[in-house]
Amino acid sequence: MVKIKELLDNELVQGSYACAGCGGILAVRMALKVLGPETVIVTTPSCLLGVTTFYPQLAFKVPCVNVTFPSTAAAISGVVAGLRRRGKSGVKVVGLAGDGGTVDIGLQALSGAIERGDNFIFICYDNEAYMNTGVQRSGATPLGARTTTTPVGRAGRGENRPKKDMLAIVAAHNVPYAATASIGYPQDYLTKVQKAMEIEGPAYIQVLAPCPPGWGYSSHLTVKLARLAVQTGQWPLAEYERGRLTVKEVANPRPLKEYLAPQARFAHLLASK
Ligand SMILES: Cc1ncc(C[n+]2csc(CCOP(=O)(O)OP(=O)(O)O)c2C)c(N)n1
Ligand code: SF4
C-alpha cells in the first residue's frame, strides 16, 4: 500500500495550462509522484498534451515524447527498445492518453504492444469524451451523457451506446496487470500505479478523471464526483492480476442521482417531463 506521506514532495509536472479542477492533470500529477524521475512519458494529442506542451515551455520535468494518436503504444515499444539498446535499465516508459486516444484511436497499437509483452505502463485518464476538440463522444462516453455529438433534443437523448469495457478488452490480452481507479481515491490509485511499476511487462490503468467544462459542473466538485462515481456503483474499482478479476465492493451504495445531478451532461435524465 502506498503511503501518501512518503510520496515525492516535488512536482514532476508543474505549470500546466489545465482548467481549474481538471481531473486529468491531477491523475498525471499524482502518478508521477509514484513513478519518479526515472520515467519517460509518451503522450498523444489530447488535453494533456495541449496543456503541458506550449512551446517553448514544457510542464513535465521528465522526458516526454509527443506522438500521433494511433501510434502511442507503437512509439512506447520504440522507446522501450531504444532504452534497452542503450543499456538503460530501471527507466519506466509510461503512456498517457485520454479515453479517445486509448479506447478508440490508440486501441490497435495498444493491443500490439500488450501482445508483444513490452515493459511499459499505459495510463488512460478517462474524462469520457474527446475534450480537447470540444467534447465529442468517445467509445468511453457513458450511456445517456450529452456531448456535442450526442445532443439532447428531437434527434436524440444523449449517448445511445453503453461505455466500452476497456478493462475487459485489455484483460482479454492476458495482460499481467490491469486496473481501474479514480482520482477520488488516491491511495487506491497510487497503490495500483506502484503495482504497475513493479510488473516486468505491460500494465494498464484506467483512471476516472472528471472534467468540469466537459461534464458541466463547478470545478470545486471534481474530487467529490470522482468519489461519487465509485460510491454510486457507476465506476467500479477493479483489478485484473494473474488472470483473476477482483472488484471492490461498495458497502452502502449512494443513490445514483447524487452523482448525476451536479452534471449538466445528465440534466435531461433528471428533468421532469
Ligand atoms: C488521428 C487524429 N484524429 C483526430 C485528431 C484531433 N484531435 C486532437 S486532440 C483530440 C481529442 C482527444 O481526446 P481524448 O483522447 O479523449 O483526450 P482529451 O482531449 O479528452 O484529454 C482530437 C480528436 C488528431 N490529432 N489525430
Ligand atoms: S477541458 Fe477538461 S480535460 Fe481538458 S484541461 Fe479542461 S478540465 Fe482538463
Automatic annotation (TrEMBL):
SUPFAM superfamilies: Thiamin diphosphate-binding fold (THDP-binding). Pfam families: TPP_enzyme_C (PF02775). CDD domains: TPP_PFOR_porB_like. The keyword tRNA processing does not apply. Its EC number is 1.2.7.1. Gene3D superfamilies: 3.40.50.970. Residues 72-207 form the Thiamine pyrophosphate enzyme TPP-binding domain. It is an enzyme of class 1 (oxidoreductase). Keywords: Oxidoreductase, Pyruvate. InterPro entries: PorB-like, THDP-binding, TPP_enzyme_TPP-bd. GO terms for molecular function: pyruvate synthase activity; thiamine pyrophosphate binding. This is Pyruvate synthase subunit PorB. The lineage of its organism: Bacteria, Bacillati, Bacillota, Clostridia, Neomoorellales. The gene is porB_2.
